[in-house]
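Re: export button greyed out
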Amino acid sequence: MFCSRPGWSHVRLRRGVLSMLKSKTFVKKTRAGGVMKVVREHYLRDDIWCGSEVCTECKDGAPVLQQDARVESDLCAYPHYLIPDTNVVLHQIDILEDPLIRNVIILQTVLQEVRHRSPPVYKRIKDATHEKEKHFYTFTNEHHRQTFIEREQGESINDRNDRAIRVAAKWYTEHLNKAPSVGELKVVLLTNDRANRDKAEQNGLLAYRCEEYIKSLTGNPELVDRLALTSDDQNEITGSKLLFPEHLPLSRIQAGIKSGTFLQGTFRASRDNYLEATVFVQREGDDSTEVLLQGLQNLNRAVHQDVVAVELFPKEQWVAPSSVVLQDDRPSDKETEEEESPVLDPSRLKPTGRVVGIIKRNWRPFCGMLNQSQIKEATRHLFTPADRRIPRIRIETRQASTLVGQRIIVAIDGWPRNSRYPNGHFVRNLGGAGDKDTETEVLLLEHDVPHQPFSQAVLSFLPKMPWGITEEDLKVRADLRHLCVCSVDPPGCTDIDDALHCRELENGNLEVGVHIADVSHFIRPGNALDQEAASRGTTVYLCGKRIDMVPELLSSNLCSLRSNVERLAFSCIWEMNHKAEILNTRFTKSIINSKASLTYAEAQMRIDDASMNDDITKSLRGLNTLAKILKGQRIAKGALTLSSPEVRFHMDSETHDPIDLQTKELKDTNSMVEEFMLLANISVAQKIYEEFSECALLRKHPAPPPSNYDILIKAAKSRELEIRIDSAKALADSLNEAVLEDFPYFNTLLRILATRCMMQAVYFCSGMDSDFHHYGLASPIYTHFTSPIRRYSDIIVHRLLAVAINADSTYPDLMDKHKQSSLCNNLNYRHKMAQYAQRASVAFHTQLFFKNKGILNEEGFILFVRKNAIIILIPKFGLEGTVFFENNDKPGPRLNFDSEGPTLTVEDQHTFHIFDRVKVTISLDASNIQHQKIRMALVEPVAPFFQIPGVSVALPEPEPEAKKLKLDR
Amino acid sequence: MATVQVSEAEKVYVMHGVRDDLRVDGRGCEDYRHMEIETDVVSNTDGSAKVSLGHTDILVGIKAEIGKPRPMVPDEGYLEFFVDCSANATPEFEGRGGEELGVELSNTLYKVFNNRHSLDLRSLCICPGEHCWVLYVDVLLLQCDGNLFDAMSIAIKAALFNTRIPKVHISEDEEGVKEIELSDDPYDCMRLNVENVPCIVTLCKIAHRHVVDATLQEKACSVASLLISVTHKGMVTCVRKLGRGSLDPDSIFEMTETGKRVGKALHAPLMELLQKEESLGKKRQKVGFLA
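Workaround output, generated via the alternate export path:
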């Protein structure tokens, strides 16, 4: 019933340190509406070091804070340590992260408050403290006997924390003064709270406002731009006219949502019209609605992706989405806004409403470019984000002239009611627009691909070099070093995660082994390395750049199954007969020594070269024969062979500019490796599902709804061919039969179309779903096991399999289906974003390529026919573009669209059919530097009305809703 | 309950002593044993007190929780009692041994304390008919050395005095949905008025006289005792006869009068002591019950 505890007591800990116990008491509301008193034990100690090199009293072995903590400053000419308060850390984290700011004491009080208020900032400040060069020191003042304070009667928690910060600053000042070599060293408190600053000065502390301090740093004036605007400054910037209705407080919003007067949803700004947005309201079950918002007042300062509360208008006020394209690109900074009259078409009316409050801001730093103010020497400028859905942001900078033409990052600080645009501050300059490195950085940022260098905390979990196989490893692993294992990969591959072998057994059967890098041996569950990998989810391959999921030491060295080195592996070994029937499957952790790392071409040459008869070649031939049988079996079961126009760039070895493009070609050996990987994945999926029916991580590919195939069926019909879609098998067979003698590329085009009809394959947790089928592979169960270096899903599968064969121990999160399910969601998201980033990278490199090439004439095929445009695929470049027959300003030619064909007849002269062969000119349209485009114009069939200037938008930027869903295996 | 075996000769000795107003331990018939009181001994309760009376040791903890008012009295809160007989007190309480006694004791406490005369139950109301404070009074018997009721009542009164209930207020939005809001200042809390909280005086009939604060030995010599709860004004709020024997009306009257007198005398120094302890504030050296 009670637990006994003395009120005050002294406890002697080991090392002879005296600790004092206090209890911290607070009351909190429980979820059921009750009130609970919570008491926590809190120990105070004397052995918390100040962390300064100057101090002789503290027995700190490796002090963090430097003796000569000097920064060029008007205000503090003496060496000093900074103590920022919570709000300074929260709002000015961009400043604190600057390499110039060093020797900062982060108090525990501050850290706890930051953690409570903003987890992302907390992570950033933690990362900063881990960096050795920053000399950031975390002082646990709440556990230090002299700096701990109790909350007093009538004192609010904020006042108490401010006091704790002052007490700690005071303690530092006095403590350092005792040191013999203190010199001029001082402690400076940074706070923007006037009351706090006054009190600090009364206590004899040095306290400055953050702006004041930063502005005093004479050596680095550019830091001032990165200051976040605080409420004090905002008043100066804009007039006092209130432009927006007030946001309701959170309590009112919550009550309103409970009672149903407000709806909660995610704000999605329109890409085409800055005065329009929708709010996606997810209700229980699948019942979700979209609420339309129109006009700045009703959008009420919501930014794309914010979680907002909306109020619905009565039905009379509902409007239809406008079909006008409106871009907010007027150069002036006027505060007035003419609203367009809403379109009133009763059939298209949609639920309409207005934003009454913001539940959660989802602001991130945005990439974009600066519009320099027309007034010379102005310091306030507008910033246009690359993402059209984000409003322009007002920033203050004195280096506008240098930032023009550069890609920069800007963070939003706030959006006051009296300001037309949100206020923000400059964070970082990425480099010149159009520059390859800059654009790559931009597309990584815009696709939310984590690409920062790995933090010290993550790197600390890497194995120590030199690394070697130990006696213990030998004891618990199967020694397969004698086997003739080899790997086959694309040229230049450094992260080799699979290797194969095949040999004849004494009983005449074949033993086939797939050996996968044992990444889970190096990445232990729950540590920083694991968390980082789980968050990244996948390695992202861009043109000429790879963003690793795990640090390079693992990805390209310890886990890479290179030839002639001993490596740890997770092996899947089958005994097969010559008909490729599996007689026996075995999984084991192993040690292998690959005999050769081959490229696909090299492997193919060895197989084809009859004069070669060494072990590796024999092994390859065995594998190849079996793979062909396996593939035959798989196709007989209805697996689909689809295609997508993939291109590879030939890069100039010095400038890394693309000099030539080439569509990927597939060799026998590609499919040989793929066949065994599929087999291993399926075998492992069966094993882990058998063992853990509730928490196996699997991959499924749902069958698409029949309506998806409409376009494919119509396309085939136009050439008097029939596509059957009643099963995957029927589809595969009918695709195989759909061949035209005089049109060899026809079948590929059909397959490209078929790919677009497919659904996205996803990871899921077996306990949370009942449909496991993989449609594309025609397999009842499937998972990812074969690429743990570049996919986190495979690491989880490795862990599950290791537990299943008693090679490793389990941990709670692995067996928690809800945790696994949320992990799957993250992995699916990362995979999707990685694909978009990849496509964006290809698109950008295509642009570079065409920039260097000038204007080209190429042959292409019509892939889709739309109401006012045709989409053309150029097989040579794998390039897709749109030719419009309409223009917003000018009356277009007379168009006749028949959705049955589908065909488009222009001016009754020429009818375009799907798959028609056309000729186009390709050129780069660099008129908008942020959104460069490939321009396509028809050359053949030629007609005067086709030559409408500026009609084409090609190579669409990767849109999240892009229909190009590649079948990802 | 914990009992001691007493021989006939001992009984005669005790009875003769009581007759002469001289008890075995030297006290007079209306004297209490040495008493120690400390409040705020259990930090995770809202109010607590520890009382030792001779070797009887009682710990009381009070937890305030939000509950629904009883339908008959929608504008009042209420108290719940639970008495736990720790096996530390006597081996008889081991397992479920102390359960019966615990229930009996808590029923008596319920009668004595849970009424609007002893405590202003209306002050425990948060929102009539919907929310009220329920005070869970947990009594732990750490050691039994007779006179449990008196010691318990004093401990409960001290704990109620020590109780601090966080202040809440009900906010109502335009739809009439009520929400409980909690003050975020831990010092912002409600105190209870314990002025009228009664103390129990148990009188033990020994031979023709009666004694207060009987030891176990004296108890063994008595056939019946009378439990009287008295407020600081000398008002009797509850009378209960305990034990198997019978009492004649005359002695009941006599015992009631003694109870009133003793009870009245008990309240004043108790309140004074509690006030004094509180005035020490944080400077007070806490002893706790391990001391």
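Chain A touches chain B through 33 residues (CB under 8 Å). The button fix ships in the next patch.
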